[in-house]
Please model this.
Amino acid sequence: MSQTVKKTFRCHPEPDECKGCGRCVSACPKKLLKLGSALNIMGVPYAEYSGEGCVGCGACFYTCPEPGAITIYEITPEA
Amino acid sequence: MEYSNKLLLKGNEAVVYGALLAGCDCFFGYPITPASEIAQTAAEKFPLLGRTFLQAECETASINMVMGAAAAGRRVMTASSGLGISLKQEGVSYIATMELPCVIIDVMRGGPGLGNIAPEQSDYNQITKGGGHGGYKVIVLAPGSAQEMCDFAALAFDLADKYRTPVYILTDGVVGQMLESVTLPAVSPRRESPEWALDFKVNPRTNYLTSIYMEAADLEQVNIHLNEKYALIEEKEQRAEEYLADDADYILAGFGICGRVIRTAAERLRAEGIRAGIIRPLTLFPFPEKAFRKHMGHVKSFVSVEMNNGQMINDIKLATDCSRPVSLVNRMGGNLITVDDVVRHVRQLAQGGK
Amino acid sequence: MAEVVKFGRPKGFFETFERRPGSIKKNMSYCPGCGHGVLHKLIAEAMADFGIQDKTTFISPVGCSVFAYYYFDCFGLQVPHGRSAAAATGLTRANPDSIVIGYQGDGDLAAIGFNAFMQAANRGENYCVFFVNNAIYGMTGGQMAPTSLLGQKTATSPYGRNALTEGYPLKISEMVSQLESPVYVERVALTTPANIMKARKAVRKAIQINMEKKGFAFVEVLSGCPVNLKMKPADMDKFIDENMTKYFPLGVYKDVTAEREPVVRPVPTFEKADVEKALYRELPGGDQEHESCDSEIFNRELRIKIGGFGGQGVLSLGLIMAAMGKYRNLNVSWLPSYGPEMRGGTANCAVIVNKGPIGSPIVDSNCDLLVVLNRPSLDKYLPELGENGVLMYDSSTIKEVPAVKPGQKAIALNTGDIAEEFGNLKCANAVMLGAIGAMLTKHYLTPADAAKFQETAEAAIAECFAGKDKIVKMNIEACKLGFDKMQAAL
Model:
């Protein structure tokens, strides 16, 4: 019997590559990102992921102007 | 079919023949009198060999097309006259800084301003001192015949490659328009793309070319490097033709058409018993200082013969540390200097014992 | 559990930006929220996905993206302000197999580089252009752009852009889509995720058109400059979506990709045989050159001047004489008057032949042979005739016998009348050539050289009018006629 394996995703904002513009915060359809209060090495508050619920749409990734500040991982449960 | 390599060509035509024989791949230019035959001849001949001729929309575009093709690793040239060259200078400054080889021909006309289309040599200062913004220099060759227009094209490309620099062929409307018999040199093989070129067929994509250096220390290093190169060029590449100079009391100096006028004048002066000789600079940067210094000991004075307001005369004074008088025979506005003008001047010098 | 990257740092970027000075090597130099970064990512991603980095050159303009070569892992060329399209033209013409990406801001493309851009578009150069329109100058600090909106306050339009003084914002996509050559023109905006995904599609399409060599592809990108527009990124997007798109509507303005064939550029040849064929002179009857001539007059510079009315064949008479000299292995020079003077009326040329090297090619004194075909030329050039010089003139227009000095000769032939009688006034110059031959034969040439005159003249005429057989034949006949008439008169 075949079973649909439900894919899950993880959004990882890299604190030290974030310039804190907040574009990803507005872009996320699930409102899973926010700018925190801690400062990174550039001295700006950086984007933080809530920890769960990412649907892997890529909106935050493409909206972010930094090359590698956001990475979205696709998680497949081991067979 | 048999072929002859002996042709009658205008200087403006000969330089294109010379360039194609030297493996020039692309020509980008804009028509202007008295240089237009260069673009016209290129328009006719480049496509016959599958090479690129493109009439640009303006002088500025043409020099930047040259930049692009040079960056791609090709032998490339453009041509214009005075005011058109002024427009190109921004691009030449970039090209010199990025150390791209290319050949630029300036067939000088009357200036300043729109001036006229008659021959002049008033771009001397503009070209030999660099031309555009910043402290760069360019090699400047000064042909005086259709044969030299042809031969100097190959020399220009070789020097451009050797030193990674723009090279000017600087001449005047007379040499450009004059037709003479020319013996074409042999065909050079294609020059392969240099290792710095943005040519994916031979080089890795890590190559890049730029002329912006935001850090003062970096830009200073670039300037030091360029000026070391110019010093080497001054040491190695001075060229001049001397004629009757070894025992001369009076040495006449002139380039382009003036180099021809002084030759005839020197012969006439010799016939009158006045020991005249000539130095005809074939490179204007580097200025052939060694040739002038060599004769400083025996000449009574130097005479600079120029179709401008007296520009090369300053380089003669610098070359000779002002150790001998240097006088000027010149015309402006597109007027030619006659052999008589020069002969009269030297006769007066001789009569005055100067 | 297995974790793979679904969206991450595009491989079209360098892993670290080593060319960038300073300690920050992972980020680009753009301000927070700047649209450049968003567009850079789309381009870098496409380059990597298409596997074209090895053959791509990215042209960095002047503007905030001047350092794009710090970031893109491909060939880089940084060019002067506004000259991107010209440099791209040089690159793609020189190497038609390369992929060239132009990237320009609104000042670079729509102001200082507008002509170069439109001309390259109009030529259909095979490259793609990404045009960042953010309605402001970024690098120089917030001055007015050609695309700044009406009423928009900038550092150089502090009272708001006014159509009467600064004109209207330039609609580049609309303009360029009116040209025949461009293949694809679209305007997109880097605002909402949906708009960014449309921009992504447009970027990929433009690069693909370039890869398929279909010609000029153009994407205008409405992009945010939060710092200079003094807005928060979110407000910035709102400004673009609500204000800019009203004046700059998004969408595809032109797409003829399907119907365009790839641009084919010629392959250059450097083969000896090809080059010689293109440049050397054909010798249909084999090599007949290198015959010397022994007549005394060629032992020194023979200085010839020819003057007349434009259209009388003054310049071609000189050319033929120069070619004759070359055929007899002499050094020759020919110097025409040029430019408007030539078109406006009088024309002249100087010819010098000599066994030895030729000094000044200018003949303004000591003229050995002066040939004049009209009165004004006689008046103007007779004073230049040398001590023992010969004047030859057309007595059909010059009726009075010119007053030459003792030692000089004045020889007349009614060349104009003869040519008219012959059937073509345009052959008067060839008639004069024959007359010169007869004069030289009588006074100056050795019998051996004289015997060669006609043959040499025919070869020279054939060379000067190469490919025009009828004209060659007519001129040869006219030359013979002139020779005979002059010989009879002398």
Observations:
- DSSP finds two helices and four strands in chain A.
- Chain A touches chain C through 36 residues (CB under 8 Å).
